[in-house]
Design brief:
six-stranded mixed β-sheet; 340 residues; four-stranded antiparallel β-sheet; alpha+beta; single chain; Rossmann fold; OB fold (Dihydrolipoamide Acetyltransferase, E2P)
Length: 340
């Protein structure tokens, strides 16, 4: 296990700067998730940490020691890739043992480490199979097992679940989170899926265009987004944004943000009303999603309401936004604090 610190880290490809002076602290044993839209620099940042890319400037420190010039193989980190990167002609055992054998580890130690990792990941009955005989989830566990046997200082995951179907992604999220608890290891996980970030992370790093927008716990980012970008990226369905003129707002506020799950169908003394013309209804059994636009305006609105709703296309529905659940943003998208 190890801590990681990035100091004013910059990466350019030719004249194009893709990482813009990133500062970040990852503590020993933390599960940190890098999240952001495609092209925001999260995978590049991971490759800089592990040594697959060379930093243009700035410092990368592991346990306080600068490692910019240390080769990837010598940093003591382990990467789990999206593509699994398994050798198809080797068995599960051979895939997991390969890295240890390459550095001259004794046969007995290789056997013990592979057996231990296989038991941890419930692969002990599959050690003689080839990758083509495994499911996608089993292949991903083999890739994780290959990392575990190396006993790395930090585990690095680069969108490891994006090739799996939705049900298996949910299952594997739970497996990786449980693995973190059992190992107590430092883990850095890259994803574009904010649901993965919210459900797995101790700390989320939200990136946009090579810069950090906000760092905090999942609920910190959900409850107090620093700006409009974070507010719209964290949470599913995404936050609604309506003109501040629709209700009293703090000085400087240009937009009000309200999450779909905070809109209600019931009037309340602390809520302001919105009239939404319905364009689509998704009935999900336990709740319904109503999509539409503000009547007399162009702002799109999504409401998540409990139970089943009888609204149809072109119906006008009265919604209420509790002021205590509202977020306010200025013209540049920064958070404006409410007086209440």
């Amino acid at each position: 296990m190890a801590s990681l610190q990035l100091k004013q880290l910059v990466k350019s490809f030719g004249q194009t700067k893709v990482i813009h002076g990133v500062d970040l602290q990852v503590d020993d044993g933390e599960f940190v998730v890098f999240v952001g839209p495609s092209g925001c620099g999260k995978s590049t940042l991971l490759r800089l940490i592990c040594g697959l890319e060379e930093a243009t400037s700035g410092d990368i420190l592991l346990d306080g020691q600068r490692v910019n010039e240390v080769r990837a193989a010598d940093r003591g980190l382990a990467m789990v890739f999206q593509s699994y990167a398994l050798y198809p002609h080797m068995t599960v055992f051979q895939n997991m043992a390969f890295g240890l054998q390459n550095i001259g580890t004794s046969r007995e130690e290789v056997q013990a480490k592979v057996d231990g990792a296989a038991k941890l990941l419930q692969l002990d009955e599959l050690l003689q199979r080839k990758p083509t005989q495994l499911s996608g989830g089993q292949r991903q566990r083999v890739a994780i097992g290959r990392a575990i046997v190396r006993e790395p200082k930090i585990f690095l995951f680069d969108e490891p679940l994006s090739n799996l179907d939705a049900e298996l992604r949910v299952s594997m999220r739970g497996e990786i989170t449980a693995l973190h608890r059992r190992l107590g290891a430092t883990m850095i996980y890259v994803t574009h899926d904010q649901v993965e970030a919210m459900t797995m992370a101790d700390k989320i790093v939200v990136l946009r265009a090579g810069k950090i927008e906000q760092v905090g716990s999942p609920l910190d980012l959900y409850n107090r987004p620093a700006n409009r970008f974070v507010a719209g990226f964290i949470g599913s369905p995404r936050m609604n944004f309506v003109p501040a003129s629709l209700d009293r707002a703090p000085a400087g506020a240009q937009e009000i943000g309200i999450r779909p799950e905070h809109l209600t169908l019931t009037p309340a003394p602390d809520a302001f009303g919105l009239a939404m013309k319905v364009s689509q209804v998704e009935q999900l059994g336990g709740h319904a999603l109503l999509y539409g636009t503000l009547q007399g305006g162009s702002a799109s609105v999504t409401a998540q309401v409990a139970g089943q709703h009888a609204a149809r296309h072109d119906d006008v529905v009265a919604l209420y936004a509790p002021r205590a659940a509202c977020h306010y943003f200025d013209a540049s998208g920064l958070r404006v604090e409410s007086a209440t």
